[in-house]
Amino acid sequence: MAAPKKSRGPAGGQGRPGRSLALILIAMVALTGGMFLADQPTPRLGIDLAGGTSITLEAKSEPGQESAINKTNMDTAVQIMERRVNGLGVSEAEVQTQGDRNIIVNIPKGTNSAQAREQVGTTAKLYFRPVLTVAQGTPTPTPSASSSGKPSPSASPSASASDKEKASATPSASASTQGRAVTDGLKADVTPSPKASGSAATTPEPSASAPSAAEEAAAAKLQKQFAALDCSSKASRAEAARGAKPTDTVVACSSEGDAKYVLGPAEVSGTEVDNAKAGFDQQRGMWVVNMEFTKKGSKEFQTITKKLSALQSPQNQFAISLDGEVVSAPQVNTTLSGSAEISGSFTQQSADDLANVLSYGALPLSFKEQSVTTVTAALGGEQLQAGLIAGAIGLALVVIYLVAYYRGLALIALLSLLASGILTYTLMSLLGPAIGFALNLPAVCGAIVAIGITADSFIVYFERIRDEIRDGRTLRPAVQRAWPRARRTILVSDFVSFLAAAVLFVVTVGKVQGFAFTLGLTTLLDVVVVFLFTKPVMTLMARTKFFSSGHPWSGLDPKRLGAKPPLRRSRRVNAPTDPKEA
């Protein structure tokens, strides 16, 4: 005789609800602990709820470029500033135009306003220029005139004998001008270039043809400007950088003010930087910014480094000029392409900031900070109070409905809502310092809407269980059989909600993104809570007498639900055909 088959449990199995509950409880404890360890017990509030700083920037026109201040360039500047200060779009920094020339930047309280001001005000115009002359950053005597009474156009500024004697005791180039150029894993070692004012500077090969009077006058003006330049003065550095065009030969200061340069026309533009990231150079123990070029930029960089590698110092250097200041001036000893590195006296924060502005692009206009004011949150506080009252009323109505219709099952729903609330609150608090998330009024609305989404998931599961009981099954098999059907419905519903939130987040800007982000976050948490909390708790409750016996207040009373008689399986017995089996 064949061995009898072992009976199988209900579809879906009982599972191990204790493990799921332990997992989500550990997650809640860890998030709560992290919230207090990070000293962030409350979510960071947006400018409409907590106030903050308002910065007014006025567009400045460069000489001969007055027409550059137009709607297109202003809108482009707004978009770039928004990406710089808003990160993922949830820190609630507001950037908008005011009139034809002004941009208003509102930064929430709790944000580093000084850092944000630097981010929005930096034009980030990056150029790679060949170095023609380098000297100390202090003013030097004007070079003597030639026998014709006119300075030679190719002559570099020289110093007096006393200056030469002092130069011998002057330290070599600072870190800001030493740097390395890096490409394809190959590094060009950087050696300090002589920057003392008394050192004889090498100059480019003179052209075969005689210079014109205009060229001689321009060269004389440039030499005079170079000699008089005082890089120790911030105002002088800003003046030297003003109005410089990429095609011009210009004078510039190092970012630290300890060196000054004569730089040739730009060979590579910062618009050809495809990507920029901050990193720490372990060998030199310093922070650097690594840049990857576009295909066009890589070819241009290869051309300039090939040309410079054949020259003598300091003309084998290329200056990395950011907004008119030289942040690094590495020497080139071989042809390079593909990538480059900016080194200098960077901290981690300054390296991250530079990489940020280079990645998001240069502003099409220069801006002057016109005013900085403090914004109060009086109006936002009243709106928040009204929103919280509305949310409390909505939650109370949901609770009343659950208790009236589902009775004992309402306890499971309320526990699940509590778990969802704890996860949402702790995550919002931690996301403030992590990604700059700020809770504003639209985000509060998104959290209130999420109450309905979460409650809807419970209702779907409860109704599936009731359907199984109406079909005549007892509670424990009904809980397991209802889960696969409810799970599919919950996942589809939450996927649609998350997709809507994602699309809204991508196509909108400003405060609406806060609503979309909160809606998407709470939708994901709904899936976590239903799978790891609601289902395991329901499985455990089904083992208690109160629910399994169908108590009238359990919400699962078979009589109240109109259940059919219990399902009974009948086996059909066929008459034996073999006499031996009879």
**Beta-strand residue percentage:** 15-25%
**What is the CA–CA distance across the termini?**
13 Å
- The global form is elongated
Coarse structural class: alpha+beta
How much helix is in the residues?
40-55%
Total of DSSP H or I helical runs spanning 4+ residues: 16
Pick out the low-confidence regions.
4-13, 143-208
CA gyration radius, whole angstroms = 36 Å
Q: Can you summarize the main beta sheet?
A: 5 strands, mixed, barrel
- With strands numbered from the N-terminus, the spatial order across the biggest sheet is 4-8-7-13-12
Number of strands: 15
Average of pLDDT: 76
Describe this protein's structure.
By secondary structure, the protein is α+β, with helices and mostly antiparallel strands. The protein has 16 helices and 15 strands. A five-stranded mixed beta barrel has the order 4-8-7-13-12. It has a four-stranded antiparallel beta sheet with strand order 2-3-1-15. Strands 10-11-14 form a three-stranded antiparallel beta sheet. α1 packs parallel to α11 and α13 runs antiparallel to α14 (511-541). The protein starts with 16 loop residues before the first helix and ends in a 21-residue tail after the last helix. Mean pLDDT is 76; it is low at 4-13 and 143-208.
